[in-house]
Amino acid sequence: MPSMLAVVALAACMPCHGAIVESYAKTGMGRSFYALTNTTVIEDFSRANALEHKPSQSRFTMFERDGRYYMRRDHARAGMIEKEIHYVMGSGNHARSYVHRTPQGRLIALPVSWYSSPRGGYWQMAPGFDRPDHVHFRRRIGYDCFFCHSAYPKIPDTADPADASYLDPLPQGIDCSRCHGAVEEHLRKPGRETIFNPRRVTANRQLEVCLQCHLETTSQPLPFGMRRFGRQFFTYDPREPLGDYMIHFDHEDRPPWNEKFEVVSAPYRMMQSACFRKSNGRMTCITCHNPHERPTSSDTACRNCHQKAHRNKAEAAQNCVTCHMAKRSPEDARLTTFTDHRIAIRPDTRPGPSLPEYTGKVRIYWPPGDEGGVYRDIVNKPDPRRPLPREAEAILVIANKVGAAELYEAVTRADPKLLGGWRGLAHARFPDMRPIQLGLARFPQDPFLLTHLGEALRAAGRIADSERASRAAILADPDQADAYVNLGVLLAQQGRVAEAIRLFQQAWAIDPRSKAAESNLQVVLRARQ
Q1: What 3-state DSSP class applies to 294?
Q2: At what angle do helices 419-429 and 405-414 cross, to 10 degrees?
Q3: What is the model's pTM?
Q4: What pLDDT, on a 0 to 100 scale, did the predictor assign at position 275?
Q5: Which of 16, 25, 64, 269 could form a disulfide with 30 if both were Cys (CB 3.0 to 4.6 A apart)?
Q6: Which H or E run includes 436?
Q7: d(Cα 451, Cα 480) in Å, to the nearest integer?
Q8: Region 393-397 average pLDDT
Q9: Confidence grade of residue 9 (pLDDT, cut at 50, 70, 90)
Q10: How far apart are CA 297 and CA 325, in angstroms?
């Protein structure tokens, strides 16, 4: 497979570090995100290229057309929809997932993945999609997700987590800067003193360079982490403590929660190991792994510490990793196997346990010893008797939990640039048009606000204005079903039945779970007979 590193990183680093760049390009990090082209394709897009998913009444077909690649879904009742596959997310060591990029710069995760196997690989539902009520082609890839699959992407000046979008060119792969910091000064004046080398800092700081992407305490919606308020997206510098950029949360430290085994759990499980706990902080990821090379099964690090293990026994000739680090299926991706980094005398070889819904307290996991303050308080049940925090982002977290219009108003006062505040207020005050219009004054192309405006105008009897707003919402985001339904209702009321039927059909194809699209379509079809 060709090198997937960002072109800029290759061009900048290759002259002096050619061998390292070439070996790194073969790692999972170097192949974490890239364009799907005829030179990077490994899947079967022509023969064994269909997948029946009975729980969602869907059939998926992956195919090539005129040198481009597509995923089509045929639903038993809602019909057909297809999206072009623009990017691959994932190295393919275990699986490859697929990404569609919209004309507006949004990234959409597609519902079928390619899973590697000794037999050559196969198509199956992507993690999180193997359920009857999956979201089909509507799962947005937010900044928090993309943070760990790319380098430093460019995002619009008005970038907001409520509507993540990205500018060209998208970095393909995690580049050198994610671990070594900005390279501009080093390129002007090459030398050890002008580049960050994680090996020259403390073990704890070395570990944090890896944790920026590899620490996900859980894939359950705790959340597992949160950016520090005031920090912009994609601004973590490996030369700073990770806790200055984000804070991580976890379940309570008790079974079954502290026994979970999930996809992005290697450091989390490693830090539960006796090897790590007894190392007095000396053990890190690079104790066993060279980040510039593909992982190997070498047990040199094990033998450096456990020289007397199995002395004079047959086991001494075996590989430590094979016996003490089991390959298991994680709870959140049953179709794959990953190495469990919780090193154990007798490791658990069963699949990761399916955890019940969590209702306990959320604790601060990283940085160690951090009390969390406002972060801990707002992630757990907010206390309405306490004064609101100063940070608008903190108020927004509370508002999203409570859903109170007064809290969304507080968000818009504290920071009018937060789209989530205006969206929440528009929804909470609907059909009042004033908060919608105030939000649109700052975010004139926001599809959520435009959809709400169209519906509010229809309720007010302003039919022509409602139609314009609903059509603008569809142009701003052709992948949201609500705007199609609202416009379809408006046109059906005017007797424009043929176009209304097409809109309801489009809405239902986009979201087969939409009862509004299905029921309105049936009503109009019956009335037409």
Answers
A1: coil
A2: 150
A3: 0.93
A4: 95
A5: 25
A6: helix 433-442
A7: 9
A8: 95
A9: low
A10: 11
